[in-house]
Structures are given as C-alpha cells and as structure tokens.
Known about the structure:
It comes from Natrinema pellirubrum (strain DSM 15624 / CIP 106293 / JCM 10476 / NCIMB 786 / 157). This protein has 101 residues and is an all-alpha fold. Helix content is 72%, strand content 0%.
Amino acid sequence: MSADEELAKDLGLLSAIAIGIGTMIGAGIFVLPGTAVARAGPLAALTFVIGGVTALFTALSASELGTAMPKSGGAYFYINRALGPLFGSISGWERVIESNS
C-alpha cells in the first residue's frame, strides 16, 4: 500500500444497521450487573475486572495489528498473513458462519 492510498471511509445501510444492533446488545452491560451480583455476590466485581483486562489486551492487540498492516479484512487478513491461506480461509469462513448464526 503506497502512501497515497487510503481505505474507504463509507458505511452502507447494512453496516449502519449492524452498528445500531451491536450498540443495543452492548447496552446490556447496564442491565446485567444486577443479575450477576444476585448470582455471584461480591465475586461479580472480580469477574468484570478479569473481563475488562481481557478486553483491554484484545483491543491493544487489534490496534497494533491494524496500525502495522492498514488493510481491510481484519482478522482474516492478519491470520492469512501470519499462518497462510489455509488458516486464513478457515478464519474467514468462521466469521461468515458466526455472523449468520
């Protein structure tokens, strides 16, 4: 990718709907802590800390990969580049199946 090329910065209808649905599902973080505390008691706070640390490491890894290889394709591109086309294809199909279930 040369210095003059940029990734497309546009969203279609399907992308906008996916963002909206993801936001609504993600808003569950404001509802579920009460249920978690009712079931796990004080340990619920520890589970949220562990989940937050895990999410932080995941976000930092993804941002590092995205900065090092600024191409569209996400995890498929990174896996394809690191492990080869077989594992890239497997991860690509996994994403398709995951998004349709």
